[in-house]
Design goal:
The chain is α/β, with parallel strands linked by helices and 266 residues long. It has 9 helices and 9 strands. It has one domain: Rossmann fold (3-Layer(aba) Sandwich), CATH 3.40.50. The chain starts with a strand and ends with a helix.
């Protein structure tokens, strides 16, 4: 049975610290790289990072091309491989190793690509209610066809099929008025090409690295296939699997609980 985590909490935020490299500082310090999902950016982790840094860990929150503070780089050329290379280059150029690499939602694609290509830089993979990609299959290929059709139609109507418009924050599980306003202000349209394209993996997802899947309850429909895959890996004794009561945007709706779970993986 998966571990159940049910309490919820909220936290503040603090600025990014420019630490680098392998474990530094306290003996048990780790490096966390927290990767956002669709429509979001590195900003979405602001309520989680203070607890990790207060415990002596180093935390990075990169933003993928075309989103957040990098939304000015959005173009037809931005695709799923762009996202994969964004993260891989970040790990390489920051000279990071033994990282706890966390991917939320759509971020599961890029962390899987990183595990496939640069496993020596990763100590633990964490899929936070995330997509676990299958080699050669797009994200859309693993989602409900009616949902896919709806998203494609929305993209056609709002951007000529360049981007997926930002959903209402309540669909991410946000209920607090302040959180809803924050998400509305910060989320940006997401390049639809990243949902249409597929990664080609040379190894099974995770590439043999320690991996944990954290699913939220109530479950979020678009990650159903990935959640079931993670349960299978757990049943085979390969991955850890747990569930927490939170919205899909657990880093926004339940940051304190999420931070405690991530600290337990250090």
């Amino acid at each position: 049975m998966p571990e159940q985590v049910t309490d919820q909490g909220r936290g503040g935020h603090e600025g990014h610290e420019g630490h680098r490299g392998q474990r530094s500082g306290p003996r048990d310090a780790r490096t966390y790289v927290l990767l956002h999902g669709a429509w979001h950016g590195g900003w979405c982790w602001q309520k989680v990072t203070p607890a990790l840094r207060a415990a002596g860990h180093v935390v990075y929150t990169p933003t993928q091309t075309g989103l957040g503070e990098r939304s000015h780089l959005l173009s037809q050329e931005v695709g799923l491989e762009t996202f994969a290379q964004d993260l891989i280059n970040f790990l390489v150029w920051e000279d990071l190793r033994d990282v706890v690499l966390v991917g939320h939602s759509f971020g599961g694609n890029a962390i899987t690509a990183a595990a496939d290509r640069v496993p020596e830089r990763i100590g633990h993979l964490v899929y936070l209610d995330a997509i676990v990609p299958v080699s050669g299959q797009s994200a859309f290929a693993r989602m409900d066809p009616d949902l896919v059709a709806s998203r494609r139609e929305s993209a056609k109507l709002t951007s000529g099929v360049l981007t997926l418009p930002v959903p209402e924050p309540t669909l991410f599980g946000a209920t607090d008025a302040e959180d809803i306003d924050w998400l509305r202000a910060k989320c940006t349209p997401h390049p639809i090409s990243t949902y249409e394209q597929a990664l080609v993996l040379n190894h099974p997802p995770g590439n043999g690295l320690p991996a944990t899947y954290i699913a939220v309850t109530p479950h979020w429909a678009p990650t159903t296939a990935s959640r079931n895959y993670a349960k299978e890996r757990h049943a085979q004794g390969q991955w850890s699997y747990m569930e927490m009561a939170a919205g899909h945007d657990a880093m926004v709706t339940s940051p304190d609980v999420l931070a405690r779970l991530l600290l337990e993986l250090a």
